[in-house]
Amino acid sequence: MKCIIVYTSMTGNTEEMANLIKEGIIEENVEVDIKDSLQVFTEDLLNYDGILLGSYTWNEGELPDEFLDFYEELNQLDLSGKISAAFGSGDKTYPDFCRAVDILTNRLTELGSHVVHSGLKIEHFPDGEEREYCRRFGRQFADSLVNAVQLA
Fold first, then answer.
1. How far apart are the first and last CA of the chain?
2. Which of 80, 106, 119, 130 is least surrounded by CB atoms within 10 angstroms?
3. Could you tell me if 114 and 44 are in contact, meaning their C-beta atoms sit under 8 angstroms apart?
4. Is pLDDT above 90 for 20?
5. Does 113 have pLDDT greater than 90?
6. Whole-number Å distance between alpha carbons of 108 and 118
7. What per-residue confidence (pLDDT) applies to 125?
8. Angstrom distance (rounded) from CA 136 to CA 120
9. Closest to 105 (Cα-Cα) out of 93, 120, 90
10. How would you write the chain as a 3-class SS string?
11. What Rg do the C-alpha atoms of the chain give, in angstroms?
12. How far apart are CA 145 and CA 8, in angstroms?
């Protein structure tokens, strides 16, 4: 079993979330790779059982420019049989708080993957209890991945 976390981050908020989620996955003894969206090819996702995508929300509820090419290239993939989830950071002063998470969740579903958790949304930088939320999200994702592989 192996999963990948692909993220984009401008201020380090979503990157910190990705690293905390990775910690949770490792706690469950699942192998995990973590990559910036600019350093991975979309077809690489096919080599993994589990896929986590993370992005901050830009402007009025959009994906950031540096994630758009990766997002568009996802259309070439069939992710049937893959376990997936999305996460991201945002700002509650905007009406579409963390909408990037919803956009990514919808795309993962459209591509045939099984989204196992509603997206994790954190305002700004994960601190205090939010750090544990991220780790727990990783542990829960790993547990879902293990269960899905055992059932297959």
1. 12
2. 80
3. no
4. yes
5. yes
6. 12
7. 94
8. 10
9. 120
10. CEEEEEECCCCCHHHHHHHHHHHHHHHCCCEEEEEEHHHCCHHHHHHCCEEEEECCCECCCECCHHHHHHHHHHHHCCCCCCEEEEEEEECCCCCCCCHHHHHHHHHHHHCCCEECCCCEEEECCCCCHHHHHHHHHHHHHHHHHHHHHHHC
11. 14
12. 23
**With 80 as the cut, is the pLDDT of residue 151 above it?**
no
Residues 60-89, mean pLDDT to the nearest whole number:
96
Q: Which amino acid is at 107?
A: R
Quickly tell me which residue has 């544990």 as its tokens: 132
Q: Residue 60 — pLDDT band, cuts 50, 70, 90?
A: confident
The values of phi and psi at residue 121, to 5°, are -125, 125
For the chain, what's the residue count? Answer: 152
pTM for this structure?
A: 0.97
Segment 30-34 mean pLDDT: 98
90-125 as b/e, with b when 16 or more CB fall inside 10 Å?
beeeeeeebbbbbbbbebbeebebbbbbebbbbeee
